[in-house]
Amino acid sequence: MDDKAGGSSHAAATGWRGGFAMAWRWFTAIVGGYGFAVAAAMLTARLLPAPDVLTRVEVTGWPMLLSFLVYVGIGLWALHEIRLRRVSAVIWGGALAMAALIWWLGVRA
């Protein structure tokens, strides 16, 4: 009887943590992956050379098209990777680092 009572409380605690971990993984894959893909596209568009206004449109377009592949890849990787800390660190840290670099570079003159 003691094993059954102790096992059920342990199972309830593990189930709650497992549910939160899965919800955080999905949130990171969807929202964090979107932020990562957008930041990567913006940073790539900012770093590519664009001598005039017409070229700037093309320079911005290609990274935006490729950001869909980045978003899908990051989302699939986030759901495949076993370690949740690594997923969170790479996606959220990468998005924040790229956003900080974009802010540091500023607007193209």
Task: Identify the notable features of this structure and list them briefly.
single chain, 109 residues, mainly alpha
Describe the structure.
The chain is an all-alpha fold. The protein has one domain (24-105). It contains 3 helices and no strands. It has helices at residues 2-47, 53-80, 84-105. Helix 1 (2-47) packs antiparallel against helix 2 and helix 1 runs parallel beside helix 3. The termini are far apart.
Number of structural domains: 1
The largest pleated sheet is described as: none
Q: What is the first-to-last residue Cα distance? A: 74 Å
**Helix content range:** over 70%
Q: What characteristic shape results from the CA principal axes?
A: elongated
Number of helices: 3
Number of E-state strands = 0
The average pLDDT score comes to 87
Briefly, what is this?
The chain is mainly α and about 110 residues long. Helices cover about 90% and strands about 0% of the residues. It has one domain (about 25-105).
Question: Secondary-structure map with pairings?
Answer:
Blueprint: H1 2-47, H2 53-80, H3 84-105
Helix pairs in contact: 1-2, 1-3
